[in-house]
Write a structure and sequence with these properties.
The chain is of the alpha/beta class. It contains 15 helices and 19 strands. Bound molecules: 3-isopropylmalic acid and iron/sulfur cluster. Its cofactor is [4Fe-4S] cluster.
């Protein structure tokens, strides 16, 4: 008899009761908070005189508004300073651990949870941020939640949720040269649509997924939400356990690791688990994918022509026309050669050490095109420190990249890192909505981090497979 999917099992393990609404009250293992979405929730608690129920299960960081150049206080931007001060006060009053910029542990919320070993298999993780799905890479059930839910979790340690269906997305075969996790997820969203996942949680499986490192799995799970899914996960395996073994949670406590491992193994989906839907994609047929439009689903293989709106399903034509006008792309042509003004290597999708290493190998010995403003924004201070120890910062700086401090930065332009006017940006982030990077006329082209590096040095969207990698001195692996 099948015990079911990881989703079923972890849900059951955390279900407290069924509420009169039909929703399940789920116990939350880890509540991550950041400066943008938590202040209002803390305000509601204060109004009612309620304390935070489980401060030890709650962890804070600052990421969206944090300046990535001069971080001296007070921040130059008064609104940013206010959000930061409010967060500082809330965590202090509630006894919540805070990875603040003086700790050396600060970073984007979806980077620091996994790197500190807070995110573990079989856990429920919530955060007032849509890309919380990232944590599913560890076999956790991870959900983005809204303000009233943040309030509920702070007050009770529980959240009310509806159970969804599970769609298994099986990516078979071996990924080709320079084809990355980012290309896999852009392809999935392109095929199934930005609303194709509505009503589902995605389980990513198959040889191409299993052979990814944790960073790659995080990139995929990160964008589940861009495909409309409520969450996304990968079953835990040896790759997952190896990552965890070397985190703060277990480094000095191998016994705890051994104690928990059987539970982690037990939550993986059973071979005979039943799925509500199964989609299979041949991973070996993929090439680097870039977006031509203004949703993450408007993507195309680098050697394929941009679609003619009239060839698309009727309900997609108008948005495609508008997107192509905004982006100033020509249907029938490829994206290769599309000129860029900015190259942004950052975000919770693609600013981990493995991403920066791969990009550095390509950048080494090359120069950023003189017409391109290029920046690297590490996903966390730990990523930054590790990259600097390997000399990656020098590789990027020597090529002409700006090497900045950790934060969300130009992923959404809530700090000073923004596009100007109608600048076009090769971006390793996850959203290309109109206005996303700080300018309403800005044009974002999503791609994998090596493709961003390639665009930075050539000045236009480039098939990275045509630029051979160079060796980087130091500890960078081949
Ligand atoms: C600011 C925050 C609420 C938002 C999110 O929920 O995703 C941000 O992280 C984003 O990527 O747009
Ligand atoms: S890096 Fe971008 S997508 Fe990720 S949490 Fe920050 S703003 Fe959201």
């Amino acid at each position: 008899m099948s015990d079911g999917t990881l989703y079923d099992k972890v849900w059951e393990n955390h279900a407290v009761t069924t509420l009169p609404t039909g929703q399940t009250q789920l116990f939350v293992g880890l509540h991550l908070i950041h400066e943008v979405t938590s202040p209002q929730a803390f305000g509601m608690l204060r109004e009612r005189g309620v304390d935070v129920a489980f401060p030890e299960r709650t962890h804070a960081t600052v990421d969206h508004i944090v300046p990535t150049a001069d971080q001296s206080r007070p921040y130059a931007d008064a609104a940013a300073e206010e959000m930061m001060s409010e967060l500082e006060e809330n965590v202090r009053d509630s006894g919540i651990e805070f990875s603040d910029p003086t700790s050396g542990d600060q970073g984007i919320v979806h980077v620091i949870g996994p790197e500190q070993g807070m995110t573990q298999p079989g856990m429920t993780v919530v955060c007032g941020d849509s890309h919380t799905s990232t944590h599913g890479a560890f076999g956790a059930l991870a959900f983005g939640i809204g303000t009233s839910q943040i309030r509920d979790v702070l007050a009770t340690g529980c959240v009310a949720m509806e159970k969804k269906d599970v769609r298994k997305i099986e990516v078979t075969g071996e990924l080709g040269d320079c084809v990355e996790a980012k290309d896999v997820i852009l392809e999935i969203i392109r095929r199934l649509g930005t609303d194709g996942g509505v009503g589902y949680v995605y389980e990513y499986a198959g040889e191409a997924i299993e052979s990814l490192d944790m960073e790659g799995r995080m990139s995929i799970c990160n964008m589940s939400i861009e495909g409309g899914a409520r969450a996304g996960y990968v079953n835990p395996d040896e790759t997952t356990y190896e990552w965890l073994r070397d985190t703060d949670a277990f480094r000095d406590d191998p016994e705890k690791f051994e104690r928990l491992k059987p539970y982690w193994e037990s939550v993986a989906s059973d071979d005979d688990a039943e799925y509500d839907d199964v989609v299979t994609i041949d991973g070996s047929s993929l090439e680097p994918v870039v977006t031509w439009g203004t949703t993450p689903g408007q993507g195309v293989g680098i050697s394929e022509p941009i679609p003619h709106p009239e060839d698309l399903p009727e309900d997609k034509r108008d948005t495609a026309r508008r997107a192509q006008e905004h982006m100033r792309v020509t249907p029938g042509e490829t994206m290769e050669g599309y000129e860029v003004d900015v190259a942004f290597l950052g975000s919770c999708t693609n600013a981990r050490l493995a991403d920066l290493r791969r990009a550095a190998r390509l950048v080494k010995g090359r120069e950023v095109d003189p017409d391109v403003r290029a920046m690297v924004v590490p996903g966390s201070q730990r990523v930054q420190t590790a990259a600097e120890a390997e000399g990656l910062d020098d590789v990027f700086r020597e090529a002409g990249f700006d090497w900045r401090n950790a934060g969300c930065s130009m992923c959404l332009g809530m700090n000073e890192d923004q596009l100007e006017g109608d600048e076009a940006c090769a971006s390793s982030s996850n959203r290309n909505f109109v206005g996303r990077q700080g300018s309403k006329d800005g044009r974002t082209v999503l791609m994998n981090p090596r493709m961003v590096a390639a665009a930075a040095v050539t000045g236009h969207v480039t098939d990275v497979r045509e630029l051979p990698e160079r060796e980087v001195d130091g500890e960078v692996e081949a």
